[in-house]
Amino acid sequence: MNQSYMPNEIIVADDGSRALTKELIKQLRTKFSVPVHHVWHEDKGFRKSLILNKAVKVASSEYIVQIDGDVILDSNFIKDHLSVVETKTFIRGTRAHIKEELLPSIFEEKRVHFSYYNKGIKNRFNALRIPFMAWVFTKKRSCSKSVRGCNVAFWKKDFVAVNGYSNDLQGWGHEDEELAARLVNSGVMRKGLKLKAIQYHITHRIASRKQENKHEFSLRKTLEENIKRCQNGYHEIHPVPQVPQLEMI
């Protein structure tokens, strides 16, 4: 992680990968100056909500910057997020996309540095970093629309207060937006972030969307009924052992 400002800790929320990932993380631990925790559970399909609740459970920091595993971060990503921290808000960032045809050469060269000017970048405006202009987009709103977990940040206490992600939302779709809706319903404002905290999404095969209609129904219910806390979430996770290598069922 080539960051100009390092986080206090790194927590890998692993939704059931194989042993190779565990070995890679073990190697990476020696290269970081901060603790690296690996939170894993068995592969039983797309259980992002559950593994993220488990990961937040072990976080010792009061403030959490959350990303997905398929993004490449600008070197000032963490620094930019921390520059807009404010109580009773959560951050909704954006992402640029790397075109699929460029991926073979990127992986071969192990490229991790990109910019607005590179060829093969989609949503190019989201790759533009102009910190002194970011205030134009850093507005607080009572809105959960289009919140994506690849680039969000929140206070752990706010996350815990709404009971985190809903464990009932298994499969792809809208789990981040549903969490954001409960945060907004609880009085936590969404704060936009653009021209800062740049990230590049690696294009990949789309996950199954069989559960999307069910998830959309849950989201609508949360919005219409002003639900502030899910019934099956963070607090329903069993106690987490505080060990260097965390493997949780």
Q: Tell me roughly what share of residues is in helical segments.
A: 25-40%
CATH superfamily: Spore Coat Polysaccharide Biosynthesis Protein SpsA, Chain A
Structural class: alpha/beta
Supply the number of structural domains.
1
Determine Rg (CA atoms, Å): 18 Å
H/E element sequence: EHEHEEHEEHEEEHHEEHE
The CATH topology is given as Spore Coat Polysaccharide Biosynthesis Protein SpsA, Chain A
The low-confidence parts are 241-249
Largest sheet descriptor: 5 strands, mixed
On the 0 to 100 scale, the average pLDDT is 91
* Terminal Cα span: 28 Å
- What portion of residues belong to β-strands? 15-25%
Spatial ordering of strands, largest sheet: 3-9-5-10-8
CATH uppermost class: Alpha Beta
General form: globular
Continuous helix count: 7
Q: What's the architecture in CATH terms? A: Alpha-Beta Complex
**Total strand segments:** 12
Explain what you see.
It is a single chain. The chain is an alpha/beta fold and 249 residues long. It has a single domain, classed as Spore Coat Polysaccharide Biosynthesis Protein SpsA, Chain A (Alpha-Beta Complex). 26% of the residues lie in helices and 18% in strands. It contains seven helices and twelve strands. The strands form three sheets. The protein has a five-stranded mixed sheet. It has a four-stranded mixed sheet with strand order 4-11-6-7, with no helix packed on it. Strand 1, helix 1 and strand 2 form a beta-alpha-beta unit. Helix 6 packs parallel to helix 7. The protein is globular. The two termini are 28 Å apart. The C terminus is likely disordered.
